[in-house]
Design a protein that fits this description.
By secondary structure, this protein is an all-alpha fold. It is globular. The chain contains six helices and no strands. Helices cover 60% and strands 0% of the residues. The protein has helices at 4-18, 22-25, 32-45, 52-58, 77-86, 95-114. The model has no long low-confidence stretch (mean pLDDT 83). Helix 3 runs antiparallel to helix 6.
Length: 116
């Protein structure tokens, strides 16, 4: 189970990536299963982000393979802090790709709110 500090950082990251503050607002409902789903969504989203190389450099803990689980809770706090600081004004993404990601973020949001 993620710690309260991890939930706070992950909630902030997911809110920034998705543009939906409910991830941060409902961070206390995060479970291990939710974290695995969040990791998958982040890996799908990274290809939508303009300057993807910079995003990956900031989130040093991201695996190169989609088959790795458990990496999000192992990220160093400094990775989150640097990422959130750099992108606090908003994240520029490929518009077409982001439209395709909306359903993934919505599914993840519902999973969190329902507590699955």
């Amino acid at each position: 189970m993620p710690t309260p500090e991890q939930k706070e950082r992950i909630g902030a990251l997911l809110s920034l990536l998705s543009g939906d503050s409910s991830f941060y607002e409902n961070r206390n409902k995060m479970t291990d299963n939710f974290i695995v789903d969040a990791e998958k969504a982040i890996l799908r989203q990274r290809n939508c982000i303009n300057n993807t190389g910079r995003f990956i450099a900031l989130m040093k803990c991201m695996p190169k393979s989609a088959n790795v689980a458990g990496w999000l809770t192992k990220c160093a706090a400094s990775s989150f802090d640097q990422f959130l600081s750099e992108y606090k004004g908003g994240l520029k993404t490929n518009a077409l790709c982001s439209v395709g990601m909306r359903s993934s973020w919505e599914d993840l949001r519902v999973t969190l709110i329902m507590g699955f």
